[in-house]
Design goal:
The complex is a heterodimer of chains A (533) and B (99). Chain A has 533 residues and is of the alpha/beta class. Helices cover 37% and strands 26% of the residues of chain A. Chain A has 19 helices and 25 strands. A 9-stranded mixed β-sheet of chain A has the order 5-4-7-8-3-9-10-11-12, sandwiched between helices. A 9-stranded mixed β-sheet of chain A has the order 17-16-18-19-15-20-21-22-23, sandwiched between helices. Chain A starts with a helix and ends with a helix. The relative contact order of chain A is 0.10. In chain B, strands 2-1-3-4 form a 4-stranded mixed β-sheet, with helices on both faces. Chain B is of the alpha+beta class. Chain B is 33% helix and 18% strand. The chains are: A alpha/beta (533), B alpha+beta (99). Chains A and B meet through strand 6 and helix 6 of A and helix 1, helix 2, strand 4 and helix 3 of B.
């Protein structure tokens, strides 16, 4: 189908559900029926009600909720925790229930053929009464258990679905499925009733629950493909976490900011970029937290607001360490230039952390965000969820034009990389490595800027010391090779001279190319990689 | 006291009305009150009683509340729902069976 036909054919109705419209490319197809299938506890009822609640609250579109499963009274009570006062909406004639839940006290005897004409009449009546634009039906499967003759139920559900269409409402029907990866719905007919099919999943993967939403088909219109993680929060309902959605819209800034250390700024060609994400990788004790501390104090020194997300050390430890390097976090907090979010990573899921962080960022509006360390978060989710977290987080802060500094802990003391880095290095703009270097029976620390997207930078590995004033960069390790691989080898001055003269010649060759083309190429390459993952 | 909910004047509705009248005449011999409700005209009444299917027969009185859905073509089941013992024409006391 051509792009143009899409626009003419199916309009979308913005749902108002957190970020769902992004993956649905505008919302649910208007005046159509959409099936939402999911296992027990996957969030179907919440989604169905939120669809109405968002319409009523934010868009002045009234709704009708048809319940086949829970009683209206139960739903009113359950949904209160999300901050939706259904009773008030009912009083204002913005919401109407059609309660078709089974009444255990009434025995129903079937005698001869029947239809669900009364139900249809009630739905039509309710739609008319509140002038509904949205209708949610929860859930179709429960209908099958109320009547013994399933072929009648099947036929009648078709009739109701087509009637909904002619009423000019956008309808959301939910259906149960028995497995997260299996037939779309239990009775095998539900998906044929609706034009569009979406699936909610609640998968137990590696002892961690992961909720995702997937749009399976939108008849005649476009949507994003694949599973997107979502979470259900107490005061707002379901929030979808879009990954690729905002990824490629980022602006690119060429304003530099200080890393908080002049010498490091020089190595980076004049400082970090305003909206870049920097990964600092190193073994334990190499100075990652120090780099973070400098980054924050550098921001505070020029009046920028800084947010520290600390998952490794306690607040007291962090503050004491900072004092040791001549940085007073407490004063920064008092002056409003610093906020510290410090907790065990395990207290929430990655999806919840992302939301918490996003909310804090939106409220505090920092110029800089430091995350210490990203490897601590790695252990609370699956690799996929972790990657999604990092993508979501980096694209979010870039969108807000915030500079981000992540630290990552390498498992081995000498050299080496961590799995974390392998997964997120392409998502970051700059990578700084901190490494131990063993020289003549002494442990020295080395620092190098491995990557600095869009800028020239110092490519040498330089020695650095840490004292009461912070980090001090020294000479490059010119006569040592193999530092990054973790096996430093000393090279004789003569060999060194020969190698360097060769490298320098090549370097000059490369520098003659226009720098812009080189940078552009790299950007495109990264974008492609992101899309393909 | 019986209420029959139907949709308009569909063939199924007419069958149900005819069946019900026949059963009532035969078994209850005038000791009944029948109200026929068209849910298309009065959907709110269906809403109040939470009626889903049509035709639905609701026996309000005497208790207990009973519902029979369908076109009432199965006389035996209708009588079961009304708690009326299927009788021969001479049976004079259609008292419900109580445990």
């Amino acid at each position: 189908m051509s792009e143009q036909a899409n626009h003419v054919g199916v309009q979308k109705l913005g749902t108002g559900i957190g970020s769902f419209d992004v993956i649905a490319k505008g919302g649910l197809p208007e005046n159509r029926t959409t099936l939402l299938s999911g296992t027990a506890g996957s969030g179907k009822t919440v989604f169905a009600m939120q669809f109405l609640a968002a319409g009523i609250r934010d868009l002045n579109q009234n709704g009708v909720f048809v319940t086949f499963e829970e009683s209206a009274a139960d739903i009113r009570q359950n949904m209160r925790s999300f901050g939706w006062d259904l009773e008030a909406w009912e009083r204002q004639s913005k919401l109407a229930f059609v309660d078709a839940s089974p009444d255990p006290h009434v025995e129903i005897i079937e005698s001869g053929s029947f239809d669900l004409g009364a139900l249809l009449a009630r739905v039509e009546n309710a739609v008319r009464k509140v002038g509904a634009k949205r209708v949610s039906v929860d859930s179709l499967g429960a209908m099958f258990s109320q009547f013994s003759d399933q072929s009648i139920v099947r036929r009648e559900l078709f009739r109701i679905a087509s009637a909904l269409k002619s009423m000019g409402v956008t309808a959301l029907l939910t259906a149960e499925r028995t497995e997260d990866y299996g037939p779309i719905a239990r009775f095998g007919v539900e998906e044929f009733i609706a034009d569009n099919v979406m699936v909610l999943r609640n998968v137990l993967d590696d002892e961690i629950r992961r909720r995702t939403i997937e749009i399976l088909k939108f008849r005649g219109t476009d949507h994003q493909k694949g599973e997107f993680p979502f979470t259900i929060v107490q005061d707002g309902g379901l929030v979808v976490i879009p990954l690729s959605a905002i990824q490629l819209k980022q602006k690119s800034s060429d304003i530099r900011i200080s890393s908080g250390n002049q010498e490091l700024d020089q190595m980076c060609g004049g400082g970090f970029f305003r909206d870049s994400v920097i990964l600092v990788s190193g073994a334990t004790g190499t100075g990652k937290t120090l780099t973070v501390t400098q980054f924050l104090s550098g921001g505070a020194a020029v009046g920028e607001r800084c947010l520290l997300l600390a998952f490794e050390e306690s607040r007291e430890q962090l503050f004491r360490n900072a004092i040791g390097w001549g940085v007073d976090f407490e004063r920064m907090e008092r002056e409003g230039t610093l906020r510290v979010l410090c907790d065990y990573p395990e207290v929430a899921s990655l999806e919840d952390w992302l939301l918490t962080i996003q909310r804090t960022v939106e409220e505090f509006k920092p110029n800089r965000v430091a995350l210490d360390s990203v490897s601590a978060l790695e252990r609370i989710g699956t690799m996929k969820a972790f990657r999604e977290f990092v993508i979501g987080f980096t694209s979010f802060i870039k969108h807000q034009e915030i500079a981000g500094l992540f630290t990552s802990t390498t498992p081995s003391l000498m050299g080496g990389t961590s799995i974390t880095e392998g997964h997120i290095s392409t998502l970051t703009d700059s990578i700084i490595l901190l490494r131990y270097v063993e020289m003549f029976g002494e442990m020295k620390r080395g620092i190098t800027v491995l990557k600095m997207r869009g800028s020239i930078h110092d490519k040498r590995i330089r020695e650095f010391n840490i004292d009461g004033k912070g980090m001090h960069l020294g000479r490059p390790f010119r006569n040592v090779t193999g530092i990054l691989s973790g096996a430093p080898v000393h090279v004789s001055p003569a060999d060194l001279e020969r190698i360097w003269s060769q490298l320098d010649a090549e370097g000059r060759e490369r520098h003659r190319d226009p720098a812009g083309a080189d940078v552009g190429e790299r950007h495109r390459g990264t974008a492609d990689r992101r899309r393909s993952t | 006291m019986l209420r029959l909910y139907v949709t308009g004047s569909s063939p199924r509705a007419e069958t149900a009305v005819a069946n019900l009248r026949r059963i009532c005449e035969q078994e209850l011999r005038g000791q009944y009150e029948l109200q026929i409700i068209d849910v298309l005209k009065e959907p709110q009444l269906a809403e109040d009683e939470k009626v889903l299917a049509t035709p639905t027969l609701i026996k309000q009185l005497p208790p207990p509340l009973r519902r029979v859905i369908g076109d009432l073509s199965d006389t035996g089941k209708v009588l079961l729902g009304l708690e009326v013992r299927p009788t021969t024409a001479t049976e004079s006391d259609p008292k419900p069976e109580k445990p």
